[in-house]
Amino acid sequence: MFDRPDSNAAFDGSSEKEAVVLVHLNFNDPDFAEAEQEFIELVNSTGAKISTIVHGKRHRPDSKFFAGTGKVEEIRQHVLANHAVLVLFNHELSPSQERNLEKQLECRVVGRTGLILDIFARRARSHEGKLQVELAQLRHLSTRLVRGWTHLERQKGGIGLRGPGETQLETDRRLLGQRIKSLRKRLDKVRSQRDQGRRSRQRAGVPVISLVGYTNMGKSTLFNRVTSADVYADDRLFATLDPTLRRLKLADTQALILADTVGFIRKLPHDLVESFSSTLDETRDAALLLHIVDAGASDRDELISHVDDVLHQIGADEVPQLIVYNKIDKLDNHSARIERDQNGLITRVWVSAVTGEGMDLLRQTLHEYFPEIQYEDLETN
After folding, report:
1. How far apart are CA 57 and CA 269, in angstroms?
2. Which residues 6+ apart lie within 8 Å of 266 measured at CB?
3. 347: Cα separation from own chain's centroid
4. Predicted structure pTM score
5. Max CA separation in the chain (angstroms)
6. Using CA atoms, how far apart are residues 129 and 118, in angstroms rounded to an integer?
7. Which of 41, 37, 50, 90 is nearest to 236 (CA)?
8. 139 vs 164, more confident
9. What is the Cα–Cα distance from 288 to 238, expressed in whole angstroms?
10. How many CB atoms sit inside 10 A of residue 317's CB?
């Protein structure tokens, strides 16, 4: 019988380049096609090999298997035919649903949150980023320990690890709680250091402009173009996790701080939002948000709406926002330009971070938003 590994990672080392089966069910979702394409990109970014995608349509999830019994059998046949090591659902699965599916399919089953957490774990580079990802993973794992890991509800020998009569599950839960408490303390220390830097910038009167947007919109490429930085940028989801701040000089006596932040996504897991709160402070406390949008995306209005939902979730929806339509180099008959409202205020800028077209217009825009800024020499992270 398949044994569930005691790990929260979606993929172990053997899963890369091994066959995985994807499951995406339609619950009358108007964004079904776009959500599936994003799901495929998420899986591709892990290096796994997609053998097939199983579709289905339901009015509501099945309480036991999420999918119906007939669909589960169809998934099982695909697992057997492709020697798949993992089944990925583009949905949130309860701990009991994951356990029931693993018994039926005899392979690992991971939901959407587990997949995203795994990608974040792969991308994190800084000390803070790794702490944040681990905290999110453990918070997610804690629900599995409480409600889903009944196979641990048994006595096991352990020298010096548990008190009299303590079960393995109780021990795991206690040790997990201790680790979460330790991570929170370490992140509080990091947040304190960030707060000191933020207060220093505020005292000097230097505004922070935060780049926000859906993942893979070209934020890091634009950040590098404007600031001449060398932040890692790639055409894949969540290429940037760790926030980077750089000074942007507009004129001899003008300077701003530009912050590159993590991209958002549909249904961003709550555990990630909670764990990345210190990073997202840069967005909440910004003087202006540059909302980067792929100008050629067929669903760009929906993506803008998803980002606005996350901004509301983290308490940054009241920060002034400017739309920057990026990637105009991929469009026909579109040139760099500025759009204004009836009062003459700039509302949109059309640019290409790859070619540099429109960067002068973006600088002009920032100059209009922050016309007279005096600054002191500051260090940025």
Report:
1. 24
2. 31, 35, 38, 306
3. 26
4. 0.73
5. 75
6. 13
7. 41
8. 139
9. 22
10. 14
Tell me how many degrees the CA angle 378-379-380 measures, rounded to the nearest 5: 115
Ramachandran quadrant class, 28 (left: phi over 0; alpha: psi -120 to 50; beta: rest): left
Considering the chain, what percentage of its residues have pLDDT values greater than 90? 31
Tokens 């993929």 belong to residue = 11
Residue 159: both structure tokens together: 């020298």
Distance CA 141, CA 131 (A): 15
Q: pLDDT band at residue 50, thresholds of 50, 70 and 90?
A: very high
Which DSSP string corresponds to 123-165?
A: H--SHHHHHHHHHHHHHHHHHHHHHT-GGG-S----TTTS-TT
Please give the DSSP secondary-structure letter assigned to residue 209. Answer: E
Residue owning tokens 């499951």? 23
Cα–Cα distances in angstroms (integers) from residue 301 to residues 304, 322, 369, in the given order: 5, 14, 24
Q: Which pLDDT value is given to residue 113?
A: 87
- Cα separation, 157 vs 215, in Å, equals 46
Instruction: Give the span between the Cα atoms of 348 and 332, in whole angstroms.
Output: 19
- Tell me the C-alpha distance between 96 and 63, whole Å: 9
